[in-house]
Design brief:
Blueprint lengths: L1 E10 L7 H12 L5 E5 L2 E6 L1 H17 L4 E10 L7 H12 L2
């Protein structure tokens, strides 16, 4: 199971706001039943099988182009652990236990 953080930034749009592009990218996530995801203020965290998540990110990367952007910068950070199943919740709980939250 992989946990991947992705940030997709359209470049060369008419506005400095990109929330419409983000919303359109998230429609791709909503249509998938193979992954879990969490929108954050600076990107999106996606959990699932590596090949499934990479396929979805490829689809998301194309969204700004189909909405008129002429350039897209996508940043991907991958945590792919093979010794045990890791989830977004498990990673957060591990830190919270150490903080006595």
């Amino acid at each position: 199971m992989a946990i991947i953080e992705v940030t997709i930034i359209p470049i060369g749009t008419e506005s400095t706001s990109i929330s419409e592009y983000v919303a359109d990218c998230h429609r791709v996530l909503k249509d998938s039943d193979k992954i879990k995801y969490l929108l954050t203020p600076m990107g999106t965290v996606i959990e699932g099988e590596l090949s499934d998540v990479l396929d979805i990110i490829k689809q998301m990367h194309e969204v700004p182009f189909s909405n008129g952007a002429m350039r897209v910068a996508t940043t991907i950070k991958i945590d792919d652990r093979r010794d045990k199943v890791g989830t977004m919740e498990q990673k957060l709980n591990s830190v919270e236990i150490k903080l006595d939250i």
